[in-house]
Every structure is written in C-alpha cells, then in structure tokens.
Amino acid sequence: MTVTDNEPGDVVDPSEVSSPRSWRRAFADLAQGWRQRPLWGYLGWQDIKQRYRRSVLGPLWISISMGVIALGLGILYSALFQISLATFLPHVAVGLLIWNFVSGCILEGSEVFIANEGLIKFLPAPLSLHIYRLVWRQTLFFLHNLVVWVVLMVVFPHPLGFSSLLAVPAFALLAVNGAWVAILAGILATRFRDIPPIIASVTQLVFYLTPIVWSVDILSDNPAARERAQLVELNPVFHFVEIVRQPLLGQEIVGRYWLVTGVITVVGWTAALVCLRNYRSRVAYWV
C-alpha cells in the first residue's frame, strides 16, 4: 500500500504524483507533522517520564543534575579566572542551560530517524513528526532546567527589565534552528552511519570553543589574547547562546547576534528543505 501526502479535494499536479521529489511533498510533510501536535506532544512527554520511571524525584533530577554541574564548574572557573562567583556562576549556568538544548538537538537529531526505525517502517506518519517530537522533548528539558536560572536570580539578583522578554523569541528562534539541524543531520546520518560519531566528536569540540564555562571578556582583557578573542564570532553557536543568555542575565542586547542568527536560520532551513525534498522518500529504506 502506498501512502501519499494528498488531502481529500486537493488539486494535484500529475508530475508531482509520480515523483517523490517535490517541494509540495516536502512542505506537506512539515505541515502534516505540525498538525499532529497532540501525538508528538504526548510522545515527547512520555520520553521524559520513561527516562525517570520509578524514580522518587522523577524529572526533577534534570534540574538537580544541571544545578550541580553548573555549581561545580562555576566555583572552579570563577576561582581560576579570579571572577566574582555572583557574576560568573549565572553566566556558566545559563550557558549550560542553552548548550544542553543545542547539543541535544544536534546529537539526538543525528539519530532521530535511526532511533525511530520501527515507527518509520510501520507507521504511515510524516518524518517531521519525529523532528517535532525531538525538539519538544528538548524544550521540556530546557524548561525543567530553567528552575536553576530562577534560583540563581533569587540568590544573585541581576538587573532584569523588559528586555528580558526577548529571551522568549530568542529561544523560539533557537528551537526553529534545532529543527533544521535535526532534519539535516538525521537524513545524512541515516544514509551514512559514520556521521553520528563524527557529529558527537565535533559537538564536544564546539563546547570548548564556545564561551560556556569561560567568557569572551576574560580574553579581551588580556592584550596577548585580544585578537584571538574576536575569532569566537566565527562560531555560529556563540551567537545563539548570546541571544538567549543576554536577556536572561539582564545584559545589553547586541543586535549583530540577532542578525547572524537570522541569516543562519534562512541558510540552514534552505539546506534542510533541499535535503528533505530530495531524500525524504528514501529514509524508510535507509533505516
């Protein structure tokens, strides 16, 4: 039995019916997946519940583990860099909060179709359903970890204002980019099984190259490393971290970070849509 993406009453171009490679089918996959929000919303929540099944604290372990790691790294690096803990600990904690979302979309995105082999082969559902499920699950992790930020803002108050509301569209932009990353990495990794370990290694390297547990200001204050500090601008993840971290910490909003992330969003989604258009129909045979 062949499953098509056509809705009753749709006027279909005959050339697109015979060809699995069409922009119409690619956009229809994204639209159908979005319409199935109750399904992937439920599955994403069940993923978290299943992970902490029979645990006393349940999903609260997400926030606890995040808080412990942030506290340990904050104390260590604030002492090494001789920076006030009240300033550096929120910087590290929020950076880790954002990085966990980014790395989750990248690492789990590279195996999103491989991990759902059974559903893809036997359930006539759009591929984007698995992408939405992944991004939703990472969003739930992010919201759980946001408790750590709330506690830090109480213990170490920052000058939060109306600009802090920019964290909402900033995270929405982050989630939109997480979706195209998962599509692109997922399809490539399904075709070439050597891709996931490569992505894992590169992601670990990017963590150290991104100012998560260190600050650009530290390098900028050092005359010998000032020029090298400017190279961090070449790291795309840096811009996504900053558009979320700056409003959450009440820092000055830098417009160029938003401009760079906007350009990356357009370029990334263009590449993902091309990949989805050309190889969407082959994923079921590759898994």
Automatic annotation (TrEMBL):
Q: How does it sit in the membrane?
A: Multi-pass membrane protein
* UniProt domain ABC-2 type transporter transmembrane: residue ranges: 41-247
TM helices/strands, residue ranges: 56-77, 140-160, 166-188, 195-214, 257-276
Q: Which Pfam families does the entry link to?
A: ABC2_membrane
* Subcellular locations according to the entry: Cell membrane
Question: Which UniProt keywords are given for this protein, alphabetically ordered?
Answer: Cell membrane, Membrane, Transmembrane, Transmembrane helix, Transport
| Protein family | Belongs to the ABC-2 integral membrane protein family.
In its UniProt entry, what is this protein called?
Answer: ABC transporter permease
